[in-house]
Amino acid sequence: MTGLLRRVAPQLLTLLAVLVLVTIFFPGFLSVGVSGDRLVGSPIDVLKRGAPVALLAIGMTLVIATRGIDLSVGAVMAICGASAALAIDQGWGLGAAIPLALAAGLLCGLWNGFLVAVLGIQPIVATLILMVAGRGIAQLITEGQILTFSDPGLAFLGSGTVLGLPAPAWLWIGAGIVAGLVVRRTALGLLIESVGVNLRASRLAGVNSTVLLLTVYMISGLCAALAGLIVTGDIRGADANNAGLWLELDAILAVAIGGTSLLGGRFSILASLIGAMVIQSINTGILLAGFPPEFNLVIKAALVLLILMLQSPRLGDLAAGMSLRRRRADEAAAAPRVLPEVRQ
Amino acid sequence: MNVRRLPLYATIAIFLVAYLLCWLQFPNILSTRVVGNLLTDNAYLGIAAVGMTVVILSGGIDLSVGSVIAFAGVFIAVLLRDTGLHPLPVFALLLGLTTAFGAAQGALIHALAMPAFIVTLAGMFLARGVAYLLTLDSVPIDHPFFETLQKAYWLMPGKGRLTLLGVLMLLCVAGGMLLAHRTRFGTNVFAIGGGQGTARMMGVPIGRTTVLIYAFSGFMAGLAGIAFAIYTAAGYPLATVGVELNAIAAVVIGGTLLSGGSGTVLGTLFGVLTMGLIQTYIVFDGTLSSWWTKIVIGLLLFLFIVLQKGLLRIGQLQRTA
User: Fold this and answer.
1) pTM value?
2) Would you state the pLDDT for residue A341?
3) Are residues A94 and A138 in the same domain?
4) Domain span holding position A322
């Protein structure tokens, strides 16, 4: 438990810093009230609005941990939202709409995974294909229009309330807990990390990397499908052009803030989720603090750069190099010529 | 026959076959008017794609291109509206800015040893954010010099117009070809794309070359922004969203390996033209919807990536045999 806390401490501190900063500019930011049977207030709003990015970040964390990246999640959101809206529009009911959307997400993930794991294409290129073509496919499904519907069930997913909290918040928190338990209470998380650290070595060690990669991309597709359902339910319509537009970048950013290296390996879903909340707090905070929203991107860019500098392997090397050099010098002074020279 | 050249031949062959198929259905498509428009309409994309080709040849990627083009348009429009400057010094100022911006990205990529993807992602946010800060509206450009630039064309036989923008793009492609295939800098780019470790051992100045690569991409993005501003006669901060993806797609369809180290600038021109041809065909057909463009481009991307993968396999087999 303390290990986990230590792992997410930087992210929690970042979130705290952002919250404090926003509260300075907008003192009422942290207040939560009760209106009828639901909680209201900016923190609840952050939990709700941050749901799509948080969901995407769960899948993206796993993909990035395998040294991959999934650029297509935004387009997959549009495809899944369009499928659900189409099912409702055709009168198939909610019982068909949600499975259809989830199946579409899984199928998209399977396609990405097939390109990466079976054909061996670089992830960034492989998922670029669906990123470009995906919006076209979504438009094909909606026939270029914004498919609107008035089904209360699907709308509930986007704007309903359960036990005082918005339904989207329950969805991402639930998905995060399930994913976290599955990867950490089984060996799955370890295997994913091993594939990310060294694909060849883990393959030689008997890890079925093909199935693992397929699974990871399918999870990412599934998360995108859930996010697509939320966005579609929220506006009661499937907008093939704008649903999930550029959210893949926010999701990658959330993972980066979460401290998972883009070069694969160790990951933390909890940290990524906190990262998603940091991004949403910034978005909401900039609006509430009265800054014009055009500052949003500049602030985001500055934030990304700052995180990059802190995460940079060079910076780590520099610090490690200094202590190593000092140790080498000490060792050389104490016992010259015992350093092992043979290194391959 | 050189296996490495196959993607280029495949690109040109696909373009010619596609054009032939279009011509069989709509004979009018083979006129200098259509060809002239094809060059003019895709000029800004082609110019940006030349910069992107060099970046991708080095094994990197530049996601900031679309935002830089939008920034360029807004910068020109706002400066011409608010000051009495002539467009030419504004162009020079802009190119200096975008080149410095690109160089800064390259320096960060090298200094921090971070993936180009994430550094240029930050650059993408920054450039678009600064464009928003300048203005949120679409600012029209009504300088007389712009009209001269817009109306500058050479009437080809068949009444097609070879506009200044089209010529600018072709010149950029020619310049890019010289730079990538005939200079020491180009050789260094290919060496880095082939493998940074090996390149360093061969004595390639990695840091300087990386900075120059992204500076070149920034310069080309600025030039593409000027072309786009002339083309639309306006600056709009929300314009050219996602152009970097089109540029990357054009480079890949043009036969350049996305992992770097292999490809041609000439192929990129045909990649851009193929994408333009798809749009032209949809316009000629009239019943097809615009989203087919995206789907067909996605399919072409897939085709080329699988083709390259196959060629790499063949190359490896030949080496081991």
Assistant:
1) 0.84
2) 37
3) yes
4) 296-329
- Reduce the DSSP state of residue B161 to 3 states and report it: strand
Domain containing B268 equals: 3-314
CA A271, distance to chain mean position in Å, is: 10
Q: CA-CA distances (angstroms) from residue B178 to B55, B56, B182, B208?
A: 15, 16, 5, 19
Q: Which CATH number does the domain housing residue B15 bear?
A: 1.10.3470
With CA atoms as reference, the chain A residue closest to B308 would be A121
Query: Which phi-psi region, left, alpha or beta, contains residue A33 (left: φ > 0; alpha: ψ -120 to 50)?
Result: beta
| Residue B319, in any domain of the structure | no
Is A23 inside a domain boundary?
A: no
CB contact under 8 A, A294 and B133: yes
Answer yes or no: is A147 within a domain. yes
The residue to which tokens 């509260």 are assigned: A23
Structure tokens at B83: 């000051």
Nearest-by-CA chain A residue for B259: A122
Domain count, chain B: 1
Final residue in a domain of this structure, among A242, A268, A290: A290
* pLDDT above 70 for A325: no
**A251 and A102 co-located in one domain:** yes
Q: Which amino acid is at A189?
A: G
What gap in Å lies between CA B178 and CA A187, rounded to an integer? 53
Give the count of beta carbons closer than 10 Å to the beta carbon of residue A184.
Answer: 15
Q: Are residues A258 and A308 in the same domain?
A: no
pLDDT digits (tens, 9 = 90+) for A91-115: 888 889 999 999 999 999 999 999 9
Asked, for residue B255, whether it belongs to a domain, the answer is: yes
Q: Report the mean per-residue pLDDT for chain B.
A: 90
- Would the CB atoms of B125 and A315 count as touching at under 8 Å? no
Residue A212 and residue A81 in one domain: yes
| pLDDT tens figures, A1-15 | 678 888 888 888 888
Q: What b/e sequence results for B202-229 when a residue is b if at least 16 CB atoms lie within 10 Å of its CB, and e otherwise?
A: eebebeebbbbbbbbbbbbbbbbbbbbb
In chain B, which among 253-292 make CB contacts under 8 A with chain A? 258-259, 289-292
How many structural domains comprise chain A?
A: 2
Tell me: the pLDDT tens digits for B115-147? 888 889 889 889 998 999 998 889 999 888 888
Quickly state the pLDDT bin for A344 (edges 50, 70, 90): very low
pLDDT tops 70 at residue A315: no
Nearest-by-Cβ selection for B121 from A133, A134, A304: A304
Provide the 3-class DSSP secondary structure of residue A33: strand
Contact B255, B264 (CB under 8 A): yes
A67, part of any domain: yes
Is B276 domain-assigned?
Answer: yes
Give ipTM to 2 decimals.
Answer: 0.78
Are residues A270 and A140 located together in one domain of the fold? Answer: yes
**Residue B321 falls inside a structural domain:** no
What is the pLDDT averaged over residues B1-27?
85
Report d(CA A20, CA A262) in Å as an integer: 29
Determine whether the interchain pair B309/A121 forms a contact, defined as Cβ–Cβ distance below 8 Å: yes
Per-range mean pLDDT, top range of A230-239, A297-306, B52-61:
B52-61
According to DSSP H, which parts of A123-208 are helical? Answer: 123-142, 152-159, 167-184, 188-197, 199-204
A68 assigned to some structural domain: yes
A173 and A282 co-located in one domain: yes
Q: Looking at beta carbons, which residues of chain B come within 8 Å of A136? A: 291-295, 298
Mind telling me how many Å the CA of B68 is from chain A's nearest CA?
Answer: 14
Contacts of B297 in chain A (CB under 8 A): 132-133
Distance from CA of B145 to the nearest CA of A (A): 31
pLDDT at B1 over 70: no
pLDDT of residue A277: 94
